[in-house]
Amino acid sequence: AAELAAQWKTVPVLDGVSGEVLCELSPALLQQCSSLEALRLAIEQLTGIPAAELRLLWGGEALPDGALPPGLCGRLRLVRAAPAWHEQLDRCAVCLLAGPLRGAKPSEFSAAVTSGNVMPEDLDQDLLGSVDFMMAAVQESGTNLRFGSDEVRGNREVVCTAIRETGLALLYASESFRRDPDIVLDAVQRNGMALEYAADELRADPSIVMAAVQEQGEALQFVFGERCKLDQEIALAAVRRTAAALRHVHFAILKERPFLLSAVRANGEALQYLPQNAQGDKELTMAASAFWARRDGNDDDPNT
Questions:
Q1: Most buried residue, 35, 55, 150, 298, by CB count within 10 Å?
Q2: Chain-centre distance of CA 59, in angstroms?
Q3: Residue 210: CA atoms inside 13 Å, Cβ hemisphere, count?
Q4: What pLDDT sits at residue 196?
Q5: pTM of the predicted model as reported, rounded to 2 decimal places
Q6: Which distant-in-sequence residues (6+ apart) come within 8 Å of 1 by Cβ?
Q7: Which residues lie below 8 Å from residue 251, measured CB to CB, with a gap of 6+?
Q8: Residue 295 and residue 20: Cα distance in Å, rounded?
């Protein structure tokens, strides 16, 4: 028992909307909770939120009923949902519109869900048009926004909550939000690849593009317009974050040897993505070697 106790650590419970810590579960408390129901009751005592309304997410998935998984650690996200919604939220998690999300296993959910494959038409269409229900759904997975009605996908609070969970939810937002600089900036800062789903004028905006490539260098492939494509600072930032982004740098920039030298100095892994005519260049190879020497010396991540 003492050995098991040593494995437990304090687990914070975060609000699904704000991300704020609602309560903390001590190792002693976690050991006393042998099931999800016991854990819900404990959190009810700490937060005042009725246990029946609690859905707890760990690693992006709702904890299933029954025994708690061994080694529960890290943090939990709390989504507050009416008890009558729980089955439909489980259905959203395993809907076959684009395959099960995040490795969710239908066997872990209610019998109603496991009776057969869940298709979009099997979901409760009235609930999918409810802002309150969809607020709970997108807290669990931002990509659940895809199930919402047109009205829901045009609701700013729902869309912002979905993007807070994953920037890629931008794909399912209404067109007006994909043209909204504030919403798009938030999305690409959370996942740079969300740049693909922004309106063309924002994919050509230097500040938004820079934010995207600083989060994920390969977002460079979704840049629109010559202004950003020919911006060496944006290209260098992309390569610094992700060496493979060099594959998406404009051919005109790749002709500039000083840029190639800067790229390899910023990220030695870029050496393997150099244009054919630069392969084997001694100075570039030495610059990459110097990068790795610096990295090994201070243990810096080349992608930061």
A1: 55
A2: 11
A3: 8
A4: 97
A5: 0.83
A6: none
A7: none
A8: 35
